[in-house]
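Is this the right way to post structure tokens for a design question? Let me know if I should format differently. Anyway, here goes:
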């Protein structure tokens, strides 16, 4: 159970990281 939660949190942080990068690239693309 603990391992599942740890992997879930890790995936969540990765998703957040990719989302921020995506937004950043989108902003630069518009410029």
């Amino acid at each position: 159970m603990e391992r599942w939660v740890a992997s879930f949190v890790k995936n969540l942080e990765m998703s957040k990281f990719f989302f921020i990068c995506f937004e950043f690239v989108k902003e630069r693309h518009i410029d």
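Format looks fine. Someone answered above. Worth noting: The chain is about 95% helix and 0% strand. The helical segments are 2-30.
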